[in-house]
């Protein structure tokens, strides 16, 4: 018996820093749990500035350092995403506001702040794009690890059912 895949989309402003890290980490987390074939995972941007580009080199370096494979490129969220995905995760309050504004009425995706699943309570995944070093990317990685596990634990416990 085949069950339909669960679908998760990770969103940030430009889809080259935070959301690719979140996407890569979430994919690695479900793969490590033996659940990789049960998920369809992607990321996208609110804005279209970086469409078609690879992630920021600091994001790629951070993922490589932690053994997180990644080969996707930036795209912008489209209205169909709101009915294709089960879960759409924003990285900060501005992302969430933008997602709620763009979501078609009655769309199926649950719009969730990724940081709400951090057991340490660090709710906002800050944009490290303008930082002069990679520390913010490392922090984003660590938050994504905690949030991925936290979300999957709550999903398995049935806490996110309609």
UniProtKB/TrEMBL annotation:
The keyword Transit peptide does not apply. Keywords: Cytoplasm, Hydrolase, Protein phosphatase. SMART domains: LMWPc. Its EC number is 3.1.3.2, 3.1.3.48. It is found in: Cytoplasm. Residues 6-154 form the Phosphotyrosine protein phosphatase I domain. The active site is at residues 12, 18, 127. Belongs to the low molecular weight phosphotyrosine protein phosphatase family. This is Low molecular weight phosphotyrosine protein phosphatase. GO terms for molecular function: acid phosphatase activity; non-membrane spanning protein tyrosine phosphatase activity. It catalyses: a phosphate monoester + H2O = an alcohol + phosphate; O-phospho-L-tyrosyl-[protein] + H2O = L-tyrosyl-[protein] + phosphate. CDD domains: LMWPTP (cd16343). Acts on tyrosine phosphorylated proteins, low-MW aryl phosphates and natural and synthetic acyl phosphates. Signal peptide: none annotated. It comes from Papilio xuthus (Asian swallowtail butterfly). The gene is LOC106124775.
């Amino acid at each position: 018996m085949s069950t339909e895949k669960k679908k998760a989309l990770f969103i940030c402003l430009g889809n080259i820093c935070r959301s690719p890290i979140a996407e890569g980490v979430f994919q690695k987390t479900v793969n490590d749990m033996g659940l990789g074939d049960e998920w369809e995972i992607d990321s996208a941007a609110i804005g279209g500035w970086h469409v078609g580009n690879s992630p920021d080199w600091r994001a790629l370096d951070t993922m490589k350092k932690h053994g997180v494979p990644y080969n996707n490129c930036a795209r912008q969220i489209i209205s169909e995403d709101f009915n294709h995905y089960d879960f759409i995760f924003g990285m900060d309050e501005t992302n969430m506001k933008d997602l709620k504004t763009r979501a078609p009425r009655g769309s199926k995706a649950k719009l969730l702040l990724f940081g709400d699943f951090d057991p340490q309570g660090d709710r906002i995944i800050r944009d490290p794009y303008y930082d002069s070093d990679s520390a913010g990317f490392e922090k984003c990685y660590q938050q994504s690890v905690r949030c991925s596990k936290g979300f999957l634990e709550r999903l398995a416990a049935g806490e996110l059912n309609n």
